[in-house]
């Protein structure tokens, strides 16, 4: 990401602010009329051409003004935005809402989703806090058809994981039940590494099942995503970017498909609590999010329980306000989780 001149940075920031407010291409004349730039319209137009050549702006059609590109938004967020904060009155109102809630984790998570949608004016998602480490509780093996077996793994905290297993040969249900009971007894209260260490105690069938259980638990460790709550879908429906039904369907896949969410959070969100991450236009790795931005953070008590929260909206997002809201709500949620789980 090449550096811009001070004047180019100022013009880029103003184009972004104008486009966020209006959703209309921004011309040099508008900037000169609305802001005291101290230069002529021709000079501003020349700088906008330079920003276009640098990949920060684009021109939707001939004779139109400019709109920011994903690269322009990234430059703005990472170099120009600076520290932002919610107004004190908004903080007080949000804090009061959380302290009025009963001491129920599900209620906190629902409230967090509602508050984020309200204050960001786009869609929100929040995962309930769960143990930072998957711990074995119980296993069932259920014969289905032919050599297909359904593995049902229950983790401490109530999280249930299911996986289909294709065996080398048909195994009767009584033997499956016996194997599952033996593994449940040997692996009780163990993490993924502890489960895998028990493999040598079993016959070929037991070893195959134990390895799969450890793999499922490792994936659960990587994701750490609890029950999912979201809010603000109606906010998205009212935005001009999502007038195209196909664009809306693709953009909301993150909220609708649990498997996609788990993969996205595992790869895109830092496992550390604290700090806010911004993913703009899918950052080249997430085609489904090419028309969106995601502002997210992890919250909770490290070593006890953590969850994730964030907002999903168009790239034309008020990043300062959104980042401030995500940061503040994540901090409140961390305080509540620490009080509930770590005290």
Description:
By secondary structure, this protein is α+β, with helices and mostly antiparallel strands. The strands form 3 sheets. Strands 3, 4, 8, 9, 10 and 11 form a 6-stranded antiparallel β-sheet that branches. It has a 3-stranded antiparallel β-sheet with strand order 5-6-7. The protein has a two-stranded antiparallel ribbon with strand order 1-2. It has 14 helices and 11 strands. The mean pLDDT is 87. Strand 1 (57-58) and strand 2 form a beta hairpin. It is 49% helix and 18% strand.
Structural class: alpha+beta
**Biggest sheet character:** 6 strands, antiparallel
Average residue pLDDT: 87
Portion in strands: 15-25%
Please tell me what the overall shape is. elongated
Quick structural summary:
The protein has 343 residues and is an alpha+beta fold.
Any key phrases for this structure?
343 residues; alpha+beta; 6-stranded antiparallel beta sheet; 14 helices; 49% helix
Secondary structure layout plus pairing:
Layout: H1 6-22, H2 28-34, H3 41-53, E1 57-58, E2 67-68, H4 70-80, H5 88-100, H6 105-120, E3 123-127, E4 130-131, E5 136-143, E6 148-155, E7 160-166, H7 173-187, H8 192-196, H9 204-223, E8 228-231, H10 233-237, H11 245-251, H12 253-256, H13 258-268, E9 277-280, E10 292-301, E11 305-314, H14 319-342
């Amino acid at each position: 990401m090449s550096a811009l001149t001070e004047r180019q940075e100022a013009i880029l920031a103003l184009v972004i602010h104008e486009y966020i407010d209006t959703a209309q291409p921004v011309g040099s004349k508008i900037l000169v009329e609305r802001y005291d730039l101290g230069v002529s319209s021709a000079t501003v137009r020349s700088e906008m051409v330079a920003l276009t050549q640098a990949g920060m702006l684009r021109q939707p059609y001939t004779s139109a003004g400019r709109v920011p590109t994903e690269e322009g938004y990234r430059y703005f967020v990472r170099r120009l935005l600076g520290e932002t904060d919610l107004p004190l009155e908004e903080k007080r109102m949000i804090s009061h809402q959380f302290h009025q809630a009963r001491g129920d984790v599900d209620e906190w998570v629902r409230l967090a989703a509602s508050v984020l949608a309200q204050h960001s004016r786009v869609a929100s998602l929040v995962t309930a806090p769960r143990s930072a480490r998957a711990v074995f509780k119980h296993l069932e093996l259920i014969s289905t058809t032919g050599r297909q077996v359904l593995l049902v793994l229950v983790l401490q905290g109530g999280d249930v994981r299911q996986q289909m297993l294709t065996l080398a040969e048909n195994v009767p249900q009584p033997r499956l039940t016996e194997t599952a009971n033996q593994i449940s007894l040997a692996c009780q209260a163990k993490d993924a590494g502890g489960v895998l260490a028990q493999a040598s105690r079993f016959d070929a069938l037991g070893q195959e099942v134990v390895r799969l259980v450890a793999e499922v638990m490792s994936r659960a460790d990587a994701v750490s995503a609890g029950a999912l709550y979201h809010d603000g879908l109606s906010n998205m429906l009212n935005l001009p970017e999502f007038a195209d039904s196909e664009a809306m369907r693709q953009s909301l896949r993150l909220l609708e498909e649990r498997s996609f969410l788990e993969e996205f959070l595992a790869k895109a969100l830092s496992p550390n609590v604290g700090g806010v991450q911004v993913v703009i236009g899918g950052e080249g790795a997430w085609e489904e999010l090419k028309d969106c931005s995601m502002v997210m953070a992890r919250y909770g008590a490290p070593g006890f329980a953590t969850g994730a929260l964030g907002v999903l909206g168009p790239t034309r997002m008020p990043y300062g306000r959104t980042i401030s809201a995500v940061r503040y709500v994540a901090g409140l949620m961390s305080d509540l989780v620490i009080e509930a789980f770590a005290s």
